[in-house]
Amino acid sequence: MVLWHLLQSGGFGKLLVVHVDHGLRGDESTGDADFVAAAAASSGDEAIIRSVAVAEEAQRRKQSLEAMARELRYRAIAGVARERLCPRVFLAHHADDRIETALMHLFRGTGSRGLAGMSGESVRRVDGIDLTLIRPLLGVDRAAIMNYAAKYGISWREDASNQSDFALRNRLRHRLLPAIGAVFGRDPREAILRAADLAALDEAWVLEMLGELPRRGNGLEVALLRAFPEAKRNRLLLSWLRESGVPDCGFAEVTRVATVLLGDGRPAKANLPGGFHVRRRSGILFIEDPV
């Protein structure tokens, strides 16, 4: 709601507001959707409400609710982007979100790309649509956002599940960050953000040095990738996975793809997060989208 207010105050007209109901909180979820629709009606902007069946899909595909909700949310947004020809998406992620993301990636064994956390602007390919994701609040913490809301009388709906520890991000927020602060005797968030900024600088330099992906047809040229040094090859594979919209990519996923790439014999295949698959056939490494 604060992001919406800021965009309107900044002169952005004819905003299309997309709300995704994950169907996880019963009447509370319905109330959130109604709240957004009413706010849009009073502001003159158009709201599009989409519903997704997170619990059912997570059970069917044996994924966590958190991962499934994120995937289906982006797919819903991508669907609107395709229908309405509006691939630029403003998101309200803030500094605390970036801190939590950096910590999650750290403990998954990520490199500088993961430690950098979210970026202010990025492109994410979802269901064949290149979404330009813009996060103007990444340098603003939650406390400042709350103060802004209070100053301008902005109403919002609080997701009750944010207070529970069902999701990894919530456990980081409620348990790990306070524990780190207690050990070091100070709030660790500023230091984590500084580390993320430094990692982002390193990542930008590495990407500049990497060069282009060795593309061939609808995938990558196996022979060229095999000839690269391991460090360069793995960084290229990681960039390719993220460019292709595969969620939650890290060391384990790159290792899995490298095994397919370097394997001999008949065409190989490996599973990837989000229902994606990687295959090697006729000298090309390619990704299959979820069915």
3D architecture notes:
It contains twelve helices and ten strands. The chain has 291 residues and is α+β, with helices and mostly antiparallel strands. The chain folds into two domains: 171 residues, HUPs (Rossmann fold), CATH 3.40.50; 78 residues, Chorismate Mutase Domain, subunit A. A five-stranded antiparallel β-sheet has the order 6-7-10-9-8. The protein has a three-stranded mixed β-sheet with strand order 3-5-4. Strands 1-2 form a two-stranded parallel sheet. β1, α2 and β2 form a beta-alpha-beta unit. It is globular and about 65 Å long. The protein starts with a helix and ends with a strand.
| Gap between N and C termini | 34 Å
Evaluate the radius of gyration: 21 Å
CATH architectural grouping of the largest domain: 3-Layer(aba) Sandwich
Count all strands and give the number: 10
Shape: globular
What CATH calls the topology of the largest domain is Rossmann fold
Could you give a short account of the major beta sheet? Answer: 5 strands, antiparallel
Q: What's the assembly state of these chains? A: single chain
Count the DSSP helices. Answer: 12
% residues in beta strands: 15-25%
Uncertain residue segments: none
In short:
The protein has 291 residues and is α+β, with helices and mostly antiparallel strands. It folds into two domains: 2-172, HUPs (Rossmann fold, 3-Layer(aba) Sandwich), CATH 3.40.50; 211-288, Chorismate Mutase Domain, subunit A (Up-down Bundle), CATH 1.20.59.
